[in-house]
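Re: succinic acid structure - here you go.
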Amino acid sequence: MKRTTPGSTPANHDTTALNRARQDFSGVESVWLFGYGSLIYKVDFPYIERKPATIRGWSRRLWQGSHDHRGTFEHPGRVATLVPEQDALCTGIAYRVTPATFAHLDHREKNGYLRFTMTLDFADGQSAEGIVYIACAGNAAWLGPANEAEIARHVATAAGPSGSNRDYVLKLARALRELGADDRHVFAVEAELRGMQGAA
Ligand code: SIN
């Protein structure tokens, strides 16, 4: 599998065609996919095997705009992407999928995300190369950093075809807790959301 390293920034929102050309899966029966956001808890694709995994050097941040799932073009939601951070560990779920599954995944992750190849570390000490969808800084749907209170205020008002942005964050926080992942950023946004008047 050709290795791809983060850095490029697509000029338009729809990265489907770019992603199709990024890795050559010919002759490959299965590929590991690492999910760190909605791919942890919304599993709408077939998989052969799944297990918790971590990647090193990346932190989860709610800095990517969502125009197609948890927001609209007029009012994008905020969803997860990864930003480089030395020695950081990001916990998620790895799925072993067939190459055909990427047609669905590329469509689902089309709003600025590009496929990258990374090393996934499993709890049993093994590791493997896998695909990770990352929305890089400066992509067309990028919203960028803000403090957790601001992010929560934004999230509280956004919704799109996949549901409310608030629901995205609460589901992600619950899934991370179930995984035993300590994610200060996501948990802080969750706490802000829960602290808002009328929040459950
Ligand atoms: C992922 O879950 O790995 C990508 C970001 C998302 O769909 O929330």
